[in-house]
Amino acid sequence: MQNQSHIFYYKIPLVILLVVVFFSCQPVAQNEKQPNIILIVSDDQGWGDLGVNGNPYVHTPTIDQLAKNGIQFTRFYVSPVCSPTRAELLTGRYHPRGGVYSTSEGGERLDLDETTLAEIFQSNGYKTSAFGKWHNGSQPPFHPNNRGFEEYYGFASGHWGNYFSPMLEHNGKVVKGNGFIIDDLTDHAMDFISENQESPFFVYLAYNTPHSPMQVPDDWWEKYKNAPIDSTHRYHDREHVEKTRAAYALCENIDWNIGRILEKLDHLKLQENTIIIYLSDNGPNGWRWNEGLKGIKGSTDEGGVRSPLILFWKNHFKPLVIDQLASAIDILPSLMDLAKIENTLEKPLDGISLKPLLYGEEIPEKNRVVFSHWNGKVSMRNQKFILDQNNELFDLESDPGQSFPITAENDSLLAEMMKLKNNWTETVLSELDREREEIFPVGFKDSKYTLLPARDGIPHGNIKRSSIHPNSSYFTNWTSKQDSITWDTEILTSGEYKATIYYAGKEASIGSTLLLRQGENEVSASVDEANDSNFVAAEFDRSPRSESYEKDYKPLEIGTIYLEKGRHPLVIKAPEIKGAEFIEIRLLVLERLD
User: Fold this and answer.
1) Which domain range does residue 388 map to?
2) Is the pTM of this model over 0.70?
3) Fewer CB atoms near the end CB (10 Å): N or C, the chain?
4) Phi, psi for 360 (deg, rounded to 5)
């Protein structure tokens, strides 16, 4: 049965949600020491973007050492793109079950009737935090602070357009970052660890590199800007060498920051009681060396979904390389098992606990299969074979690059795998409603702030989006009083809201008027200050980008508006425009005052 629309999910009373989460998992005995957990996810880092996986052109000594001293999986699979993988990590369930079908404009939101890893650990005495890229719902109650994370610092939508002191949010409030974003996220994670060292803690550290734009600090770029790059790999004729160099520089920066975390744990004497997990969310975001695997990010072939998975727990895990099949859906049940949290969740998990493998034992699921899906395309794997999106069969042991389809003598094997794939499509994938109407909630009663970025708005008239990629875009080319922007919103709580926009505008726009309306209620303000911002940090782009550039957006308080409960679109208009063009708008913030 298909899940109901998001419009109704956030009407579930909070007390019911809390009761469900509280009773979903039984806490461990009080006298047992619970391990701290740090789950680190990089963004668009492929299997081949680590030295330990055979790439001599990228320098990742810290991660390589974690793998050599800990546990490394060679057959670990994620989804082809960002949001689905994150949903599977959070729930232990295939992403179609949680309603995730896109990476933008609401399609990335994780259904509210799904229980997250953070909710489970929070209800079992853990201090919980998330830092970095969330990408499973921007507005409360989809926001990380409403999904079990007590502390959140980062950005809740998809890719970001500026990595140098960018606009971020801290527990819903807009703030300015401090320095290079990966260093900044690591600083906040380390502060959280220090502040909560007496309690068991769960840290979800979701780095947003080496995802594009390929912005690299000078210190890290210097090493790679003229570095040799392999020109003999499978896709060398499609490779953009400068993008590859930038990706490797960003991977080394991640490696350095993980080293900082290890030093912090060592200083606090926490290493022996802290599990560290490292993985990526999908395949590489470019045609670079990837050990000959077929495809890149977005593909359900090996190159798009095989990810590094490294686990390290000092004096608990012995060095081990594991070749058994594993998936992102296994992370939640594995961590619950390691923390001795009993699973009493109402919804069944698709993942299994990998704990026996971590201690050199076998798991009973010898004939296990896992599925990869994106945009209607499905592949499936067992320990030896892959059935790809075109229903061609390959032997991954003898042909890991998927170069030679298996022919007719294996018709019985093909029929068996086709049956499993069709069954998954008819059951799991059929739960996904790609046609649902996306409405954006405002005024969730347990959250003070609602952020409505340009990516969730709809331009009318001459107004254009700054990029075809919505996530970090802004609205520009506002030239007429007939132009407008709307957000299709559901107001969850009636009351007074302070409205603020973040904008850029030329000198000629001073004296123009901006109006915010909901039904008969409206508030307006004049533009009294120019903000003729250039693109920020553009000089750090090491390869051409397709995403929007960012500007130095300034806040303009429009005033207080009364919003009526119910589904009402929010409209921004310009009753008066001075000059040839109105301001550019990046974000609307609504702060509930009562």
Assistant:
1) 372-431
2) yes
3) N
4) 80, 15
